[in-house]
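Input (structure):
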C-alpha cells in the first residue's frame, strides 16, 4: 500500500467533509464555505491571505491540511499553442498537466478555446504498447486532492501569464481527462475530484465540458453512464478489429469489442450525446484502409465522432506515424460515408497526445543523475 502524505490535501475536501472537520473542532459550519471560497474563488496561495478566518482556525488548517498538494517544477510555455506543467507530488512523483490553446475551425489562427488535460495516476497499469505513460507501469493512483490541484495550478499559471483584476480570474473552456493514467481505474478518486471541480462551492465547472477518456474498461463505462453528472466520454479505440486492438492494447483481452461496443452504445443513448472514438494512426499497425472501413462501420453503428491522431514518436519505442497522404486516405474513408471525423494536424495537439513524455524524460534524467553519483 502507498504510504499516506502527512497532511490531507485541502483540494480533496468536499463542502460536507470540510463542514464535518470544522464542526469537530467546534467551529461554526459556515467556516467551511469561507475556506473553500478562499481556495477556489479567490485563489489564495497562503493561509495568511484568508483574513476573515480567526488566527486559531488558520493555524489549525495549516497543521491539518496541505493547501496545494502539487508543486510546480516546470512550466514549459511553448511558442505554439500549448503549455506543459510538470508537477511534483508529496512523494516526489511527477505528473503532467497540459494547457492547449486550440485555434477553432473556421476562426482562423485565432487561439480561442482553452482545454486543460489532466492526469489521474502516476504511470499506468494498462500496458498499451505505444504509450509513454505506461512504460514503467503504475506507481500509484492520484488522490482526489491531487487531481483537483492540477486545475488550480493551471489557474495560477494563467493568472500570472495574463495579469488581470481579481474579479476576472483566468478560466478555461474544457477539461479532458486524457493525461497520464487510466481514469476509470481510479474511479472513486476521479469522481470525488470531478464533483469538486463541478460544484458551485468548488471550481463551478460544467460536467458537459468535462471529457473522460478511457482505454475501454467496459463495466466502468456502464458505471459512468449512471452518474448523475453527465460527463462526456472518449474511448481510445486504436484498433477497429479485436485482432489489431489486442496486439497493441492488452485491455482488449479482458474487454474485447463485443463487450466494449455495447457499453459505449449504452453510454451514448443514456446521455443523448455523441461519444468520441480516439484512433491513433500508427504506421503498418492500424492504418490500413481495411481498418478504416471497420472503424467506419463501428462509428456509423454507434453514431460516434472519430478523432484521428497521427502517432507521436516516443523515445525508445519503434512506432511511427503514417505519412500525410495515408492519413488523409484513412480519413476520407470515414468522411465519404458521412462519419463525423477530425484529423488532428495542428502542432499543439502533439504535446497533449504525448502527455506523459515530459515526465518520462525528467524521470529518466533523474535516474541518470542518481546513477552517476
Ligand atoms: N488512459 C486513458 C487516458 C489517457 S491517454 C486512455 O487511454 O484513453 C490519452 C490519449 O493519448 C489516448 O487516446 C492514448 O491512446 C493517446 N496516446 C498515448 N500515447 C500516444 C502517442 N505516443 N501518440 C499519440 N497519442 C497517444
Ligand atoms: Fe494507460 Fe491510456 Fe497510455 Fe494505455 S494509452 S497505457 S490506458 S495512459
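Output (sequence):
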Amino acid at each position: 500500500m502507498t504510504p499516506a502524505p502527512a497532511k490531507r490535501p485541502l483540494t480533496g475536501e468536499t463542502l460536507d467533509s470540510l463542514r464535518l472537520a470544522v464542526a469537530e473542532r467546534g467551529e461554526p459550519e459556515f467556516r467551511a464555505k469561507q475556506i473553500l471560497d478562499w481556495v477556489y474563488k479567490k485563489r489564495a496561495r497562503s493561509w495568511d491571505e484568508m483574513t476573515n478566518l480567526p488566527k486559531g482556525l488558520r493555524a489549525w488548517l495549516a497543521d491539518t491540511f496541505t493547501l496545494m498538494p502539487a508543486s510546480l517544477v516546470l512550466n514549459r510555455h511553448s511558442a505554439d499553442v500549448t503549455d506543459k506543467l510538470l508537477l511534483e507530488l508529496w512523494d516526489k512523483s511527477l505528473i503532467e498537466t497540459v494547457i492547449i490553446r486550440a485555434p477553432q475551425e473556421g476562426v482562423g489562427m485565432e487561439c480561442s478555446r482553452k482545454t486543460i488535460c489532466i492526469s489521474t495516476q502516476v504511470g499506468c497499469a494498462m500496458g498499451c504498447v505505444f504509450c509513454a505513460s505506461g512504460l514503467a507501469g503504475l506507481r500509484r493512483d492520484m488522490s482526489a486532492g491531487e487531481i483537483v490541484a492540477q486545475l488550480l495550478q493551471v489557474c495560477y499559471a494563467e493568472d500570472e501569464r495574463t495579469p488581470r483584476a481579481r474579479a476576472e480570474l483566468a478560466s478555461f473552456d474544457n477539461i479532458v481527462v486524457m493525461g497520464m493514467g487510466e481514469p476509470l481505474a481510479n474511479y472513486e478518486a476521479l469522481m470525488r475530484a470531478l464533483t469538486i471541480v463541478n460544484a458551485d462551492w468548488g471550481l463551478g465547472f460544467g460536467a458537459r465540458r468535462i471529457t473522460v477518456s478511457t482505454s475501454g474498461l467496459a463495466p466502468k463505462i456502464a458505471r459512468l453512464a449512471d452518474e448523475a453528472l453527465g460527463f462526456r466520454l472518449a474511448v481510445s479505440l486504436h484498433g477497429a478489429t479485436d485482432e489489431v486492438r489486442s496486439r497493441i492494447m492488452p485491455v482488449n483481452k479482458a474487454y474485447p469489442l463485443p463487450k466494449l461496443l455495447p457499453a459505449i452504445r449504452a453510454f451514448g443513448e443514456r446521455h443523448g450525446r455523441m461519444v468520441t472514438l480516439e484512433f491513433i494512426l500508427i504506421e503498418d499497425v492500424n492504418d490500413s484502409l481495411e481498418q478504416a472501413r471497420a472503424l467506419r462501420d463501428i462509428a456509423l453503428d454507434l453514431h460516434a465522432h472519430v478523432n484521428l491522431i497521427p502517432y507521436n514518436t516516443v523515445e525508445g519505442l519503434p512506432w511511427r506515424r503514417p505519412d500525410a497522404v495515408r492519413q488523409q486516405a484513412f480519413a476520407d474513408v470515414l468522411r465519404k460515408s458521412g462519419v463525423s471525423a477530425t484529423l488532428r494536424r495542428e502542432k499543439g495537439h502533439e504535446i497533449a497526445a504525448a502527455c506523459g513524455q515530459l515526465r518520462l524524460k525528467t524521470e529518466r534524467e533523474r535516474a541518470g543523475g542518481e546513477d552517476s553519483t
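Notes: The mean pLDDT is 89. The CA atoms of residues 254 and 274 lie 25 Å apart.
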